[in-house]
Amino acid sequence: MKTPRLIWTIGLFLGALVTPFVQAAPPQARVAKASESAPSFAFEPLDQWKAAVLAGDKAGLTNFYSISPAASAKTPQGDTQDPAEEPAFWSSLQPQGLDRLDVKVLEVKTPQPGMMSLVLRFEAGVKTSDGEKTGIISAAQIWVQKLGEWKIVRTQRGDLGAKPVRRLPEPAKPNTALYADPAEGPIEIAAALAAATKDHKRVLLVFGGNWCYDCHVLDTTFHSKEFAPLVNANFHVVHVNIGNYDVNLDLAKKYEIPLEKGVPSLAVLDPEGTLLVSMKKGEFESTVRIGPEDVLEFLNKWKPNHAS
Question: If we measure between CA atoms, which residue out of 7, 265, 37 comes closest to residue 120?
Fold first, then answer.
């Protein structure tokens, strides 16, 4: 992805907008810590919101959006302070044939207790005269808690579009902890280099962020049965979090990653930390445009003991 679409800086919406709502988060809103497998994520208000969308329940959806202060939204048509905007959009899908809505949570942030920021990818199944078609809606939501109830105070979304065809495997449940805190980047690189000096593997840096669906697709490819043996035998993989293109810029510069070309973007280091290659042209930034053969070629070319 070339730009962090549907991402905003949480700090812009703190202060007067959020303070009246903030309370301690209930147990169902807690996010599991990162582990070797994708952490589970459960947030009951999002499940209830989804049910209202599937039912085309405009009145029910309206109850999820803050009235005072009014929920704001950024849509392809522009910014609005009308809290009725999003309930109208989402409730309009069911009359158009919506009968399935799969929610993929890409990123979860809890800036403070009683506040949750989500980056989401919706896969909508819509019945047509030609059968069911799958569309995609990219979105983000900020939820806050007021008097024991969760309300949406800010949203950003795209319109319903056709699902692009990919030849790489897609995650059934994206790993919301794929990219650790940006501050962990240098520490993880140092640890990977230390391990590489012992087992003679190479270090594969993957610059990106949890909000980036293409980053999740590439990681799913690395973990697939076709690629995992090759990756595990030859590389220590480090995911370098670039935030909203505003952190770890020094690492991107050091390893010659032009972030303006998009992410995911890869660099390979030898055990001494010498840069062997970096992607200069955004070669992998769109997993719609690449296939298994492209990933395989890159990994085979830059695995250890290959003539450079």
Answer: 7
Length of the chain: 308
What residues does 207 pair with on adjacent strands? 240, 265
Is the Cβ–Cβ distance between 244 and 9 less than 8 Å?
Answer: yes
The CA–CA distances, whole Å, from 198 to 191, 236, 259 equal 11, 12, 31
Q: How far apart are CA 307 and CA 293, in angstroms?
A: 20
Q: Which CATH architecture has domain 184-302?
A: 3-Layer(aba) Sandwich (3.40)
131 contacts 101 by C-beta, under 8 angstroms: no
Residues 108, 178: Cα–Cα separation, whole Å: 11
DSSP letter for each residue of 39-90: PPB--HHHHHHHHHHHHT-HHHHHTTB-TTTTPEEEETTEEE--TTHHHHHH
Question: Structure pTM?
Answer: 0.89
Residues 115-170 have pLDDT tens digits of 999 999 999 999 998 889 999 999 999 999 988 999 999 999 999 999 999 999 99
Tokens at residue 208, please? 């990106």
**Are the folds of 10-162 and 184-302 the same?**
no
Amino acid at 251: L
CATH classification (class only), 10-162: alpha beta
Beta bridge partners of 269: 203, 275
* Residues near 4 by beta carbon (within 8 Å), at least 6 away in sequence: 209, 211, 212, 244, 245
Give the single-character DSSP code of 165.
P
Report the distance separating Cα 102 and Cα 160, nearest Å: 13
Over residues 9-46, the pLDDT tens digits come to 444 444 434 444 444 333 333 333 333 456 668 999 99
Q: Where are the domains of the chain?
A: 10-162, 184-302
